[in-house]
Write a structure and sequence with these properties.
The protein is of the alpha/beta class. Helix content is about 45%, strand content about 20%. α2 packs across α3. The longest helix has 17 residues, at about 125-140. The protein is globular, with a radius of gyration of 17 Å.
């Protein structure tokens, strides 16, 4: 389904067989809503599950102007408005985790719970140059040169060997991400930093990291939990896409977290 959000044609998928509370999943840089297929299937009987493609990803158009993570937060607010969703449980992975943190700060009354996977509260100085490099490669040479190194960061060799079909789907989505969408998102990630503000988040929060994540070390995700009062931190045997590699374990953690009394 498509809807115009802040002037951008945006793709979303809604699964509401259960008609329960809203549960929104936000994907990673170079991904799209399909990365959540398995988890959406798991939760759709008890929740109204929303997935969508961020600007310049999947089947959502690229904005003509540069954008920030705060702009992506506003996109989500507008999407929820368009769907008459007053509030939601929020799950974000990698770049999606940054959007989720920003949204929890910008719209605290609209977040029931916050789950941040394989993400950070701010890009360190050494990471800023990496994002600039990736943006430059995408603009100059397209996505192909970025795929192999990205997959090696995202998924452990063991998972890649055992689940070639999952790897193929993720690789296909990454390969077909619009280079300008990817580049603009890299620049948004480069400039993201809410570390000094995270203490203002008051909703129940779960953070999850992959033990073998070299792109976003587990300590960076744990730092998000440490900054938010009462937040929970879990470590899974995975690389950067922990909710993909450890889908059953992540689903169990999320289910328990969502059902606990506030």
């Amino acid at each position: 389904m498509q809807v115009n959000i802040n002037g951008i044609e945006t793709r979303y998928v809604l699964s509401n067989e259960g008609g329960g509370p809203w549960l929104t999943f936000i994907h990673q840089l170079g991904g799209d809503l399909s990365v959540w297929d398995q988890l959406a299937g798991y939760f759709r009987d008890d929740y109204t599950v929303l997935r969508y493609d961020l600007r310049g990803h999947g089947e959502t158009a690229v904005s003509s102007e540069p954008f920030t993570i705060a702009d992506l937060s506003r996109d989500l607010a507008a999407l929820l408005d368009a769907l008459d969703a007053p509030r939601t449980h929020l799950v974000g992975m990698s770049m999606g985790g940054m959007v989720a943190q920003q949204f929890a700060l910008d719209y605290p009354s609209r977040v029931d719970t916050l789950t941040v996977a394989d993400s950070t509260g701010g890009t360190p100085p050494e990471g800023r140059a990496l994002f600039d490099q990736r943006a430059a490669v995408a603009r100059q040479d397209g996505m192909a040169p970025l795929v192999s190194a990205t997959l090696s960061r995202w998924l452990t060799p063991g998972f890649q060997a055992a689940h070639p079909e999952a790897v193929e789907q993720i690789s296909e989505v990454l390969s077909h991400t619009l280079p300008e969408g990817y580049a603009k998102a890299c620049e948004a990630l480069r400039d993201f930093d809410v570390r000094s503000k995270l203490g203002a988040i008051r909703c129940p929060t779960l953070t999850v990291a992959g033990r073998h994540d070299t792109g976003t070390p587990p300590a960076a995700t744990q730092a998000v939990a440490d900054a938010i009062e009462g937040a929970q931190f879990e470590l899974l045997d995975a690389a950067h896409l922990a909710p993909v590699e450890q889908a059953h374990r992540f689903a169990a953690l999320l289910e328990t977290f969502l059902e606990r009394p506030v």
